[in-house]
User: Fold this.
Amino acid sequence: MTKKEPNSKNTDSFLFGKKNYKFMAIGLGIIALGFILMAGGGSNDPTISNPEMYNFRRIRLAPTLVLIGLGIEIYAIMLDPNT
Assistant:
């Protein structure tokens, strides 16, 4: 049997820290909220156009939230867990 020396470094560690995972969860929640806000607005009859599909929430707000969430995800990945 081999013995580990008490002063040896432990190489079995996570790549990201707790702060990284917290920001990743926030970014994922914002992305999910963006996709939820984008859903709906369609019509069962393809010959009828529903003007509700083209409102501010689906055209501007939801895609902006998805892009902000992706930006937060990139920040969470680049964040140094040791600081």
